[in-house]
Write a structure and sequence with these properties.
Elements lengths: L2 E5 L2 E4 L4 E8 L7 E7 L6 E6 L5 E3 L7 E6 L4 E6 L8 E8 L2 H5 L5 E2 L3 E6 L1
């Protein structure tokens, strides 16, 4: 059974930082593309960042230069380092897995985590 469990969310002031983690199990982690998505209240789900099995990365325009996606294959863990957080970053953040990077980029991964809330106050 595939499981993706996010952690690390919380409340911070504008300009602060958080690091999200996603512990994966039930599939060959290092062979999959992984991604972070977010959804704010009354808004659609937005792609934040993606990383393929080779370590190549892509970012949404709104987070470029502030967020960094990475993974530790030995720990089956995906990370999202978020710096200079702003109120517009407030959302539920979801980890996702797909057998191809195209699934991540197209926002149709095969598996989703339950999400972790990030709240940024001004």
């Amino acid at each position: 059974e595939v499981q993706l469990v996010e952690s690390g969310g919380g409340s911070v002031q504008a300009g602060g930082s958080l690091r999200l983690s996603c512990l994966a199990s039930g599939f060959t982690f290092d062979a999959y593309a992984m991604g972070w998505f977010r959804q704010a209240p009354e808004k659609g789900r937005e792609g934040v960042a993606g990383i393929d099995s080779a370590g190549n990365t892509v970012y949404g325009d709104s987070v470029k230069g502030r967020f960094t996606i990475s993974k530790d294959n030995a720990k089956n863990t995906l990370y999202l380092q978020m710096n200079n957080l702003q109120p517009d970053d407030t959302a539920m953040y979801y980890c996702a897995a797909g057998s191809t990077m195209a699934m991540i980029v197209s926002r149709v991964p095969e598996n989703w985590g339950q999400g972790t809330q990030v709240t940024v106050s001004s």
